[in-house]
Amino acid sequence: MDVNPDSPYYINLLDSKTHPEDHREYVMFHGCSKQGAELIKREGFKPSSADRMLGAGVYVSRDIRKACKYPLDVPDSEKRVLKVRVDVGRVKEIDKRNHPMQKTWHTVHGFDTAWVPPNVGMVPSNQQENCVYEPKRIKVIEVMKVTEENLSQYDHLQSGVTPEDSHVYVMYHGTSKQAAVEIQRNGFTPSKVGMLGAGVYLSRDIRKVIRYPLGSSDSDRMVLKVKVNVGRVKVINKKGHDNQYNWHTRGFDTAWVPPGVGMVPSNQEEDCVYDPKRIKVMAMLDVANLKKVNPWLTHG
């Protein structure tokens, strides 16, 4: 089956901390002015000069909040973020300043994309950066204004990063087809008990929710893609945490379990939202179709 990244079943899960795989397509973002966006749509991207951090190429990021900062001297009302699809080809990780291939990754070594991970001290914001040598590898999908609504719909890519208070995030909920229709019609009914007490259980990591309900076949599973206003967030990062079950009575709206802390059998992240009114269903995604379009979910 051909993979169509514009399909509602195509999930670009890779967060900004994960190394991009060779010869894959990823959704990325490029910040520019309104005028620059019109020029790029008309004539395509023009590679930057060779004196940039990674040399010549088109600079893009999988972190939309990095892209939305540029151009630095342009007000937000005149900025645009280009959502693009990138065939990365061969990828070289550049993970420190003065890396021996920092500016020769394409011209000498034949790589198509250079990737700087976040938090390695190369980018002032400590966010990730990609440089694609050949503009023909990049296709513009959408031109977006810099608004919180546009930015928040891509925050689900950061499943390992603490959700910020009062932000809106895309999350997922795994359930049966029958229950999905009921939720779409009448809204979520909070669980009365669970690892984090009462609330609606969700995750920004679709690999976690796609397994539910446990014991069901894919033909009866559905993933709800939802938008969540998290309100005040409490991090619950260990078993027996003092606020594991009473976080809501302490004034928090959402509890978040980070990945890899030993609370969840899969070691993936978990969110519990106390008030279902904070959750809005965006789409119902059939699990069988999700796995056809995203084969890696089968092994996730």
Automatic annotation (TrEMBL):
Protein name: PARP catalytic domain-containing protein
Entry similarity comment: Belongs to the ARTD/PARP family.
Protein species of origin: Salmo salar (Atlantic salmon)
Organism classification: Eukaryota, Metazoa, Chordata, Craniata, Vertebrata
Single GO MF annotation: NAD+ poly-ADP-ribosyltransferase activity
Superkingdom to which the source organism belongs: Eukaryota
GO cellular component assignments: cytoplasm
PARP catalytic domain: residues covered: 136-239
